[in-house]
Amino acid sequence: MQLMRNELRNILWLGLLLGGLILAILVGWHQVRTVSPAAASAEVIEQGRQVYADQCASCHGAQLEGQPDWKTPLPSGRLPAPPHDAGGHTWHHPDDILFRIVREGTAAIVGGGYESDMPGFADLLSDAEIRAVLAYIKSTWPERERTYQENVSQPH
């Protein structure tokens, strides 16, 4: 009887150990899957911060706050520069759209005669600099917004 109890206890411990190992593997796999494949290094983020300060902050704000009343059209009929922080809508868009907006300009992406003060930066910024700016902007978002934006950026 004592021998059966010891064997049963050993089997239970082994089961718990294997269950814990399987759980750890699954959690690790989930973490690897949910980390953005474009997770940026500190160097890239710093480069993006500098490019943002030089090229974007004059309209979108030094703290990514955008222009006041960014949802209300200006007298020209165009919208003010939106914020790029969590209070804006940048994080609602997938990476490819954000990249194209910076590279080609908002009007080129929206089409249909839409007018915007946001120019394209293809002649001024390299693709790597555009990606760095986007990495910097994303690095400032809370986890909820980053996760949402990573999800909408996944191919379907």
Structure notes:
The protein is an all-alpha fold and 156 residues long. It has seven helices and no strands. The protein folds into two domains: 34 residues; 115 residues, Cytochrome Bc1 Complex, Chain D, domain 2, CATH 1.10.760.10. The termini are far apart. About 6% of the residues have low confidence.
How would you summarize what this structure contains?
The chain is mainly α and 156 residues long. The chain has seven helices and no strands. Helix 2 (42-55) packs across helix 6 (127-139) and helix 4 crosses helix 6.
Topology:
Elements: H1 2-34, H2 42-55, H3 57-60, H4 95-104, H5 106-110, H6 127-139, H7 143-153
Give a quick set of tags describing it.
single chain; 156 residues; mainly alpha; Cytochrome Bc1 Complex, Chain D, domain 2; 2 domains; 7 helices; elongated
